[in-house]
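Lab notes, practical 5.
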Amino acid sequence: MNLPYFPPGADPGPDFARLVRDSGLQPPAPEGTLNGGDGGFGIPHGTTCLAVRYADGVIMAGDRRATSGHLISHRHIEKVLPGDRFSGVAIAGAAGPAVQMVRLFQLQLEHYEKVEGDHLSLEGKANQLSQMVAQHLPMAMQGLAVVPIFAGYDLRRGEGRLFQYDVTGGRYEEADHTATGSGSLHAGTVVKLGWRSDLTQADGVDLVLDALFQAADEDSATGGPDLLRGIYPIVATITERGFERVDEAELAERTQVLVERLRAQRGSPAAHDNH
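Output from the prediction step:
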């Protein structure tokens, strides 16, 4: 078998799916399968999730929108889920397979704990999820990719840790913050500019809310806070106390403060009238 040659302008880079397609190695999909995206089946896809380290652990957050092409299929989807007591998974990609993957992951961690009488190490949990993502690669090649973020509190090290994945199951530990999904570029930029080593929980929650707000402003597949329906992002902390969801009433209050601050920065019509 001869290896394909690409001139510099046609180099597919790290995109393995594109390499397979351009090399003519991708087998034709049987009729009726999800060839080329979702093949018109309208499969819901989750969008933007992120995680940041702070003084006491990790904060994970995700918007609530799932889209099917250009349509909003769900407004209340939960993309930040507990793995076990001391870990969490944030999902982006095809919503159905992603949720099923997390449920199986939860079951495997629970089974290990019952059999061994102890928690699997955080490194072991990250490796287990990596194997599950790798096993999902055939479906990812059909357009049903699942790209999670895994984070948790390492009881042995006494600190929060977070991991990013690619569709092949590659696992990459991030030092401070990470984002995934269609709005990850915008959310990640906001977090990069606002993150600092002495971040408190309150500041961290404000930062991820701001990041998701800005991502929703630029990415149509990312859902921003819906004040009319009372829909706000899912935000959770993972510390030595375990996985804890931030109360929705607190999120509503912080979102309102964020909106007022952004309105003041951009200048309200009343402010322009006074000048």
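Observations recorded by the TA: Residues 43-264 form a domain with the Glutamine Phosphoribosylpyrophosphate, subunit 1, domain 1 fold (CATH 3.60.20.10). Helices lie at 16-22, 95-116, 122-135, 137-140, 184-194, 201-218, 248-266, 269-274.
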